[in-house]
Task: inverse folding
Protein backbone atom coordinates (compact mmCIF):
# COMPACT_ATOMS: atom_id res chain seq x y z
CA UNK A 1 0.00 0.00 0.00
CA UNK A 2 2.84 2.41 0.83
CA UNK A 3 4.38 1.74 -2.59
CA UNK A 4 1.15 2.77 -4.36
CA UNK A 5 0.92 5.91 -2.26
CA UNK A 6 4.53 6.74 -3.15
CA UNK A 7 3.73 6.32 -6.85
CA UNK A 8 0.69 8.56 -6.53
CA UNK A 9 2.55 11.24 -4.57
CA UNK A 10 5.54 11.38 -6.95
CA UNK A 11 3.36 11.46 -10.06
CA UNK A 12 1.04 14.08 -8.58
CA UNK A 13 3.90 16.28 -7.43
CA UNK A 14 5.38 16.30 -10.93
CA UNK A 15 2.08 17.34 -12.50
CA UNK A 16 1.52 20.07 -9.90
CA UNK A 17 5.12 21.30 -10.32
CA UNK A 18 4.66 21.60 -14.08
CA UNK A 19 1.38 23.46 -13.59
CA UNK A 20 2.98 25.88 -11.12
CA UNK A 21 6.00 26.47 -13.35
CA UNK A 22 3.65 27.21 -16.26
CA UNK A 23 2.14 30.08 -14.26
CA UNK A 24 5.57 31.71 -14.15
CA UNK A 25 6.78 30.84 -17.63
CA UNK A 26 4.83 29.15 -20.38
CA UNK A 27 8.11 28.20 -22.08
CA UNK A 28 9.47 26.41 -19.01
CA UNK A 29 6.08 24.79 -18.40
CA UNK A 30 5.95 23.65 -22.02
CA UNK A 31 9.49 22.31 -21.84
CA UNK A 32 8.71 20.31 -18.71
CA UNK A 33 5.36 19.11 -20.08
CA UNK A 34 6.92 18.08 -23.39
CA UNK A 35 9.38 15.80 -21.64
CA UNK A 36 7.60 12.47 -21.49
CA UNK A 37 7.68 12.40 -17.68
CA UNK A 38 4.44 10.50 -17.36
CA UNK A 39 5.62 7.91 -19.89
CA UNK A 40 8.98 7.55 -18.17
CA UNK A 41 7.30 7.21 -14.79
CA UNK A 42 4.92 4.61 -16.21
CA UNK A 43 7.90 2.64 -17.52
CA UNK A 44 9.70 2.91 -14.18
CA UNK A 45 6.61 1.81 -12.23
CA UNK A 46 5.96 -1.03 -14.70
CA UNK A 47 9.56 -2.22 -14.43
CA UNK A 48 9.49 -2.01 -10.63
CA UNK A 49 6.24 -3.98 -10.58
CA UNK A 50 7.08 -6.64 -13.18
CA UNK A 51 10.80 -6.55 -14.06
CA UNK A 52 9.53 -7.48 -17.54
CA UNK A 53 11.65 -5.80 -20.21
CA UNK A 54 9.29 -6.98 -22.97
CA UNK A 55 6.38 -5.12 -21.35
CA UNK A 56 8.53 -1.99 -21.16
CA UNK A 57 9.46 -2.37 -24.83
CA UNK A 58 5.83 -2.91 -25.86
CA UNK A 59 4.72 0.10 -23.82
CA UNK A 60 7.43 2.27 -25.38
CA UNK A 61 6.46 1.28 -28.92
CA UNK A 62 2.77 1.84 -28.20
CA UNK A 63 3.51 5.28 -26.74
CA UNK A 64 5.50 6.17 -29.86
CA UNK A 65 2.62 5.34 -32.20
CA UNK A 66 0.05 7.11 -30.03
CA UNK A 67 2.06 10.30 -29.58
CA UNK A 68 1.49 11.09 -33.25
CA UNK A 69 -2.32 11.43 -33.04
CA UNK A 70 -2.05 13.17 -29.66
CA UNK A 71 -0.45 16.11 -31.46
CA UNK A 72 -3.90 16.94 -32.85
CA UNK A 73 -4.82 18.35 -29.43
CA UNK A 74 -1.91 20.79 -29.48
CA UNK A 75 -2.81 21.95 -32.98
CA UNK A 76 -6.59 22.23 -32.58
CA UNK A 77 -6.77 23.76 -29.10
CA UNK A 78 -4.89 27.00 -29.82
CA UNK A 79 -6.69 27.37 -33.17
CA UNK A 80 -10.09 27.07 -31.48
CA UNK A 81 -9.10 29.44 -28.67
CA UNK A 82 -7.89 32.03 -31.19
CA UNK A 83 -11.29 31.77 -32.90
CA UNK A 84 -12.81 32.98 -29.63
CA UNK A 85 -14.35 29.74 -28.42
CA UNK A 86 -14.67 29.28 -24.67
CA UNK A 87 -11.79 27.33 -23.11
CA UNK A 88 -13.83 24.31 -21.99
CA UNK A 89 -15.67 24.05 -25.29
CA UNK A 90 -12.36 24.29 -27.15
CA UNK A 91 -10.91 21.62 -24.89
CA UNK A 92 -13.84 19.23 -25.44
CA UNK A 93 -13.68 19.72 -29.22
CA UNK A 94 -9.89 19.25 -29.20
CA UNK A 95 -10.17 16.07 -27.13
CA UNK A 96 -12.84 14.79 -29.53
CA UNK A 97 -10.59 15.52 -32.50
CA UNK A 98 -7.70 13.81 -30.74
CA UNK A 99 -9.80 10.74 -29.89
CA UNK A 100 -10.86 10.53 -33.53
CA UNK A 101 -7.21 10.71 -34.57
CA UNK A 102 -6.42 7.88 -32.15
CA UNK A 103 -9.08 5.68 -33.74
CA UNK A 104 -7.82 6.53 -37.22
CA UNK A 105 -4.22 5.76 -36.19
CA UNK A 106 -5.21 2.42 -34.66
CA UNK A 107 -7.18 1.53 -37.81
CA UNK A 108 -4.25 2.47 -40.09
CA UNK A 109 -1.75 0.58 -37.94
CA UNK A 110 -3.98 -2.48 -37.97
CA UNK A 111 -4.07 -2.33 -41.78
CA UNK A 112 -0.27 -2.61 -41.71
CA UNK A 113 -0.31 -5.47 -39.22
CA UNK A 114 0.66 -3.41 -36.18
CA UNK A 115 -1.43 -4.33 -33.16
CA UNK A 116 -0.94 -2.25 -30.05
Result:
Amino acid sequence: MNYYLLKIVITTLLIVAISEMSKRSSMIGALLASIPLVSVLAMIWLYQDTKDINKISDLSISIFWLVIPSLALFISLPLLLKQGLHFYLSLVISITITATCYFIMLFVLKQFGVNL
In short: Helices lie at 2-24, 26-34, 37-50, 53-82, 87-111. The chain has a mean pLDDT of 91.
